[in-house]
Specification:
The protein is an alpha+beta fold. The chain folds into two domains: 202 residues, no CATH class; 147 residues, no CATH class. It is built from 17 helices and ten strands. Strands 2-3-8-5-7-6 form a six-stranded mixed β-barrel.
Length: 408
Amino acid sequence: MVARRYLMPGQGEGFIFLVAGISLVAVALGVAALIAVMSVMNGFRAELFDRILGLNGHAVVQGYGGRLERWPQLLAETQKLPGVTSALPLIEQPLMGSVGGRVEGVIVRGMRLADIRANPEIAGNIRGGSLAALAPGSNTVAIGARLAEQLNLHVGEPISLINPAGQSTPFGTVPRIVSYTVAAVFEVGVYDYDKAFVVMPLEDAQTLLRLDDAVGMIEVVTDNPDNAKRILEPLRQKLAGIAVINDWQDSNSALFSALVVEQTVMFWVLSIIIVVAVFNILSSLIMLVRAKTRDIAILRTMGASRGAIMRVFVSVGTIIGTAGVAAGLVLGFALLTFRQEIVDGVSRLTGTNIWDPSVRYLTLLPAKTDPMEVLAIVVLAVLLSFLATLYPAWKAASTDPVTVLRYE
């Protein structure tokens, strides 16, 4: 009851109430910022992980010189390994794409037709046309949405693919140029893929790249991405001199390591906001103790114990901190709910694309909230608020009622 009364401003205590209100707002902002930023970082990592691994698998068995000659036997051996859920033959080669005299670098990916239609990152993100039009020998391809924008290319229009390793003539090597019709446009959400990928049936890629019956690699998916290296270890000795195994950690280690470091740094940097808010709680309680010195002395003379006085001021500070945490939770989840609208609105107001997919990799701002992280943020904020109350509460409990009543 006493703590509740002290939370409301008394006569001449408006400034103390203002500081307490600022403390509450600061805690709310700190908690909201931590929840929003950590959720976006988690979402960024999860989206990159899902989309990159959805297209590239957990590991690839890549042939030396870009050729795997006896791949059906190797494919069967790979599929039999414990922990391997699927293994698919692939051809992937950087080439040039040309439309109306405009040339862009592309990555040609050849896949079996059934594998193309079963890939959720491609089949589940068609923006135009249909994969049903793809067929071996039909000279049809599916291309990324950003590549279609760069080349001003639409479904049903032709694109010429240029293979520098063409035919040898007395005048040198003549590049091989083959025209294909765009059957579908897809957008997987990773800028680098959407601006470069040209997907075609495996047989057409073998013809274009003059690989005969060979493929370039085997894409492997396991039941646990973190154990991909260990799962494929039995293949390494068999592949000596034939192929090399690269898992997703080898291919993307720099990117995911940077994300982990950035996430850790952002957590501690944004935690400083909560620490600053806690110091505001500390200062407001110190001023409140000074303003309530006579009240404390009267309570002590009426029989209130030191522990009771401490509980009053600990309750005041903890209630301020807890209210700030609750407000921060509401604000944080509101920011996450409307994150894309906020980004789009700020971009329109400033005239600047603040979420450039060519820099950020992903076309949309992702978010994935980890309940354990949210719990850790809440516990951290409440604990710091509680610790900030101990010194003012101790000073209040240490008040000598005789001295106060004598001079005040």
